[in-house]
Amino acid sequence: MEKSHLFTRYICLILFSASFIGCSGNIPFDQLAASQAGEIPSGSIIITSNSNGTTGPGIISVWTAAGALDRVIYDYTKVTVGYASGIAFVPPTQIFAVTDTGGGASNDFLDLFDYSTPFANPTNLFSTLVSGAATTYMRQMALVTDTSNDRYYAFISEAGSNRIARLSSSISNLNFTRDYNFAANGTCTLATPYGVAYIPSTGNLGVISSAASGRVNIYDLTGTCVGSTAMTNFPTGAAYHSVSGKLLVTYATTSAVTAHNVSTGAASPASAIYTSAGQLNTPRAIATDDDGYIYVGSDGSDLVVKLYWDGVTATASYVGTVIQSSTFSQNITSITVVP
Fold first, then answer.
1. Residue 92 in contact with residue 113, Cβ under 8 Å?
2. What share of the chain is helix, strand, coil (3-state, %, to 5)?
3. Using CA atoms, how far apart are residues 162 and 209, in angstroms rounded to an integer?
4. Which of 77, 89, 208, 327 is the most core-located residue (most Cβ within 10 A)?
5. Domain of 106?
């Protein structure tokens, strides 16, 4: 009987990987990809996808380092809340996510999920983020952990209001409050901010202004502009690359990844380290690991491509497409790699 049940679940999973239709056994979608138990292994890839105004499913999903679907943490389509636009993972169990309720709202959330209870309602940590007009939404986030002072700091792009929200909380007693908002100052501008990345080598933040004539901004953690460089071609996501000591930025219209100086925001080298219209079709999400690997998620192709860059050569090398296009990877909004 147990073998028959497992076989039924296997067949259902195949069907659901193609569409959201029912299958024999009446197994709900949320149970199909939530059968894995135990901690999320090191090297796993967590992605979020956008369901608002698009065809994506709006889920938080976990994939193995080899690119196999491990589990689904949450399915936003079941609660019609919106989707997760930014994510951070704190070992061993905490998954922080920015929940966008669909634009034109002042009640978008910072939520906490626990991998051990898939599809349980998240714990709301903060509920007055501002996405702005109906055509603008919450974007990505960076979470900074200061264990010596028992503090979390969450930096979240409020795209519609053209600012970065800084929230803080005790680590031991989660209760986030808004400290203040980053605004344009010095040479830094925030026209539809998108990617936010912590730069541990300097203790600053890379913040991407994603307009057509955008900017790669460097702020300190109190919101003071350190440096900024004007860029074109819709810069979007950002991630710190520890091997090179550079800030990596995706460019939506040129399907490229460019490395930037962490003090000035200037492109370094001047040309993109990787470009591919087929693989990086409208890339918006990017993450790195400590070994120099780069993970780029594309909104247009629904792929996660893995690259390697040693920080010395002029270009990064293509390693492979680690996550293929599927129902579970449509319209990727953010990526994080479990350390």
1. no
2. 10, 45, 45
3. 9
4. 208
5. 92-323
* Amino acid at the residue 62: V
Amino acid letter for position 56: G
pLDDT confidence of residue 53: 46
Q: Residue 203 carries which side chain, given as an amino acid letter?
A: G
Task: Extract the tokens encoding 231.
Answer: 């860029």
Q: Which residue has the tokens 């679907």?
A: 69
Task: Indicate which CATH number applies to the domain containing 278.
Answer: 2.120.10.30
pTM of the model: 0.88
**291 in a structural domain:** yes
One-letter amino acid for residue 126 of the chain: F
pLDDT at 305: 97
Residue 246: per-residue pLDDT: 98
Q: How far is 104 from 42, CA to CA, in rounded Å?
A: 37
Burial class (CB in 10 A: 0-12, 13-18, 19+), 21: exposed
Domain presence at residue 198: yes
Q: Is residue 329 part of a domain?
A: no
